[in-house]
Amino acid sequence: MALTDHDFMRMALALARRGLGDTAPNPSVGCVLTAEGRIIARARTAPGGRPHAETQALAIAGAAARGATAYVTLEPCAHHGKTPPCAQALIDAGIARVVIAQTDPDPRVNGAGMSLLQRAGIRVETGLCAAEAGVLNAGFTSVIEQSRPLITLKLATSLDGQIATRMGASQWITGPAARAVGHKLRGNHDAIMVGVGTLLADDPELTCRLEGYRATPLTRIIVDSHLRTPLTSRLLLSRHASPVWILHRDGTDPARRAAFADLGLTLIELPASPTGISLPYAVRALAGAGITRLLVEGGSTLAAALLQTDLIDRLAWFTAPLVIGGDGIPAIAGFGIDKITQAAHFKLDHVQQIGPDRLAHYSRSA
After folding, report:
1. Do 188 and 21 form a contact (C-beta atoms < 8 A)?
2. Measuring CA to CA, which of 25, 75, 187, 312 is 20 to 30 A from 326?
3. Where are the extended beta strands (E) located within the chain?
4. pLDDT tens for each residue of 31-54
5. Is-contact 31 43, C-beta < 8 A?
């Protein structure tokens, strides 16, 4: 049976999905080139964001690209940046038709890529698998439209919403299969963030421990208002393998700041807030530093603060079939709501059964 436009675009989306977490601050784009219903080249955005998917696919196809169709998950760029525009590369290669899933929200492009292609006589079609592309490009879009990354809060709890016993024991609530899926989440985000309380309690390393899952190091971020992170923590000791950023409030001890700077850590000073640092300022700073997809893994105070300030876009909620009781440590600390209408609202997207555990994916309600 002959493959359709939809089939080829789904292939391009699958390619792009594999690059999530590896291409920031650029989006992960997939490109499939076909001639007479046969694939002649396919590529995705390279780790680090360059070369772009289209130029790589064109290089693979060579002269065979003339008269071919290109399926691209995001509108080809039309501006001169660190690389020439992909729209012009498609024109120069003699591409006859371009099928685009989503228009680029970047104001430097946003229709300009399509216009450039059309003026060159190329047939352009848009909107195929647009919803899937929108989910895929949500981090890139969030930075442009909201000046902050797409933020996913990951939780692993008992049935009654606890993350640890009253004595702080938490390893392991979920089973090994669920924990492996958690590492896949780390693999497709640009950065992971925890509060200093979690770091002091668990001394995590916060790496993606799936061999070969990502090509670029995962940026690890600590929200540490007063720079309490121990210099001997596992996270800091592994700083050469994967970068460490610390978000702290203004006015912290200069000697402490110097000690962290001497280790080569990235320190981001932010305005203070009653709970530590201003999180809206923090996430804008992360976007400015090139983070498009941020995974938050704890703890309960940081989760509550992000929910209270309406900064969570998605929830990845792992639930284990056990009950800890009301004297355990809750996944989310109190954040002072009095009415149900003040609660953070989400919609259920889908549920996965992972061995004995479940993973529910939620997104922000419109």
Report:
1. yes
2. 312
3. 30-35, 38-44, 69-72, 97-100, 123-126, 150-157, 162-164, 191-195, 219-223, 244-249, 266-270, 272-273, 276-277, 293-298, 314-319, 329-330, 346-354, 357-364
4. 999 999 999 999 999 999 989 999
5. yes
Is 54 considered catalytic here? Answer: yes
Active-site residue, selected from the candidate residues 36, 54, 145, 297: 54
Contact 224, 248 (CB under 8 A): yes
Helix (H) or strand (E) holding 179: helix 176-187
pLDDT tens for 219-252 read 999 999 999 999 999 999 999 989 999 999 998 8
The 8-class DSSP code of residue 62 comes to G
pLDDT band at 110 (very low <50, low <70, confident <90, very high): confident
Other beta carbons within 10 Å of 19: 24
Distances (CA, A) of 31 to 7, 66, 171, 176, 187: 13, 16, 42, 35, 21
